[in-house]
Design a protein that fits this description.
The protein is of the alpha/beta class. Helices cover 31% and strands 13% of the residues. It has six helices and six strands, in the order ααββαβββαααβ. The chain crosses the membrane at residues 12-28.
């Protein structure tokens, strides 16, 4: 009987390897296929998953506020800002200070609130706080916009309490009612009774 040639040996070896590979692949498929009772992974359809509480609020953009900028600025007028803007943003939007503007004492870091008027005094004018409300103050002190010096004019409000009011405004936002000033440490009902006719919002 004629023996196999070297070439024929190679062919048979390759065929054998292919057969073994096929058997191995079928075995892998059998092992990888989920069996009855196994864990089934289901992909949620779009729109079925509810967002976690609070996630919708994270997507909300800051509210807009409207501010009147006047006095010693190059382009006085009414401007719209994002909530959280400060006096420096109002001055920049209005073209910066005029040469004759009195810049000393202007707190550029003060927060702006909707309806504020930012007035930059000019040389020769008596200094007033650059932040004023749009309406008449009737001689009362606006506790949402007053400077430390103005707050100290109130009876029972010294430097420490005035600073506490400014800090409270920065951290917790503007007061919605004059009674909310009692949330400041050291200011109670008695102090409120003494100053309530001298303050407004």
């Amino acid at each position: 009987m004629k023996g196999f040639s070297f070439k024929e040996h190679g062919v048979y070896i390759i065929l054998g390897l292919l057969i073994l590979a096929g058997i191995g692949y079928r075995g892998y498929q059998s092992w990888a296929t989920p069996r009855e009772g196994g864990v089934e992974i289901i992909k949620a359809e779009e729109g079925l998953v509810e967002p976690l509480p609070g996630m919708e609020e994270m997507d909300n953009e800051p509210s807009e506020i409207v501010i009147h900028v006047a006095g010693g600025v190059n382009y006085p007028g009414v401007y719209t800002f994002r909530e959280g803007a400060r006096v420096v943003d109002a001055v920049e939007a209005a073209g910066g200070f005029k040469e004759e503007a009195r810049q000393e004492g202007v707190n550029l870091a003060a927060l702006l609130y909707d309806g504020n008027q930012v007035y930059i005094p000019l040389e020769g004018e008596d200094y007033i706080s650059p932040l004023e409300t749009g309406g008449s103050s009737n001689g009362k002190i606006n506790i949402n916009t007053a400077s430390q010096e103005e707050l100290e004019k109130l009876p029972g409000i010294g430097p420490a309490r005035a600073q506490a009011i400014l800090r409270d405004r920065e951290e917790n936002g503007p007061y919605r009612a004059i009674e909310e000033i009692t949330r400041v440490s050291g200011i109670g009902d008695k102090t409120l009774e003494n100053i309530k006719d001298m303050i407004n919002l």
